[in-house]
Amino acid sequence: SYIEIEMSFRAKPEFELRVADVGYICPARWARWDPDDNIHGAPDLVIEVLSPSNSAAEMYAKEQLCLESG
């Protein structure tokens, strides 16, 4: 398995790159991942640290994006 702070991923091919504060990829998915490419789809686990600069709308949008893309 793979855990990374500031994990970059592309939830859907047409979406821009996103960054999870902490992300986790399961062993089966990690074995197929190309480290020279971005993670396709949302990480298996996404942890976001709420800060004063985050709006509720922004956090909800990221939550929905991750849930819709796996």
Write up what this structure looks like.
The chain has 70 residues and is α+β, with helices and mostly antiparallel strands. 27% of the residues lie in helices and 31% in strands. The chain contains two helices and four strands; from the N terminus they run E-E-H-E-E-H. The chain has helices at 27-32, 56-68; strands at residues 2-10, 18-25, 39-40, 45-47. A four-stranded mixed beta sheet has the order 3-1-2-4.
Question: Which keywords apply here?
Answer:
alpha+beta; 2 helices; 27% helix; 70 residues; single chain
Quick overview of this protein structure:
By secondary structure, this protein is of the alpha+beta class. 27% of the residues lie in helices and 31% in strands.
How many strand segments?
A: 4
* Gap between N and C termini: 17 Å
Q: Mean pLDDT, as a whole number? A: 89
Backbone structural class: alpha+beta
Helix content: 25-40%
* Distinct helical segment count: 2
**Main β sheet profile:** 4 strands, mixed
Provide the gyration radius in Å: 12 Å
Name the poorly predicted regions: none
Form type: globular
The proportion of residues in beta strands is 25-35%
Strand order, largest beta sheet: 3-1-2-4
SSE series: EEHEEH
